[in-house]
Amino acid sequence: MTNMGYEMGKGLGRQSEGPSTFVLDYEIRPQNHTYGIGYRSTAWDDFKQKQLRIAKARAKKEDVPFEVPMRPYPLTLNGQFTRAGDIFPFWGFREPVIAATGWDV
Question: Which residue, 50, 10, 15, is CA-closest to 32?
């Protein structure tokens, strides 16, 4: 933010009229995962991370390359998103089809 003109002690805003101090409404804890800021991992997430660390250590010990297993890339957006206010995935996108000229939606 300093690259954009922010100076310590001054408020945010065009004429520095905004608040100059900020209060966090949550406790900042050190994170030992790579999910992102504020993400609270589940027991399943922790289990999968532990399995990956073990596999990576085993590969290093055996001097073989280690590749992170990835889920297959879905060819559709259906079921990947939830609309605001809904609790179930949205399935209203058009399905892609393979036409003679290539991919078509």
Answer: 50
C-beta separation of 83 from 93 below 8 A? no
Residue 94 sits in which domain range? 71-105
Query: H/E/C letters for each residue in 49-95?
Result: HHHHHHHHHHHHHCCCCCCCCCCCCCCCCCCCCCCCCCCCCCCCCCC
Number of domains in the chain: 1
Q: What are phi and psi of 45, to 5 degrees?
A: -60, -45
The answer to whether the beta carbons of residues 66 and 74 sit under 8 Å apart is no
pLDDT in tens, 6-23: 777 777 777 777 777 766
Query: Exposure of 33 by Cβ count < 10 A (0-12 exposed, 13-18 middle, 19+ buried)?
Result: exposed
pTM over 0.85: no
